[in-house]
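Lecture 7 notes: from sequence to structure.

We start with a single chain of 155 residues. Read the sequence below before looking at the structure.
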Amino acid sequence: MENIIFTFFDIFNFGLVVFFWWFTLKHYKALPKRIPVHFDFDGKADNFGHKAYSFFTPLLGMFFYFLFTYTLRHPETANFPVEITDHNKDAQFLIMETFLRWLFALIMLIFMNGQDYTFRYAFDENVKPKVPLPTAILLVIGSLIIALIFVGIFK
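Now the structure, written as tokens:
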């Protein structure tokens, strides 16, 4: 059963990378020459750059995809919060593999939300992000807490 879930996650995560590139390429021509590249805590752009900067986050997403894929293929290279023994190895690897797949999906969704906000803000500075950044950060922190609880239970 876990192989089916992991296969679904892997296809979904790869699909997120492909969709992110498609979204960026689709909107690139319509962007003005200068787009916001950084926002302050209030959601207002405080730095602008050439529209070619819109490719930075998809490239960063691909980097994370390859990093997470490498770590999933070589779980022994990962840094675990507990000592890995023969007794807990299977459970800890399962927790790590599940968490990394989930974390990558969250990261990509945060990146895509930021990209969407950047593109919409380039045309109208009164727009709001579809998902506020604090909500996204709380999702990541909450996921980490849950993963650490499971790690502690199965140590």
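The mean pLDDT is 92. Keep this in mind for problem set 3.
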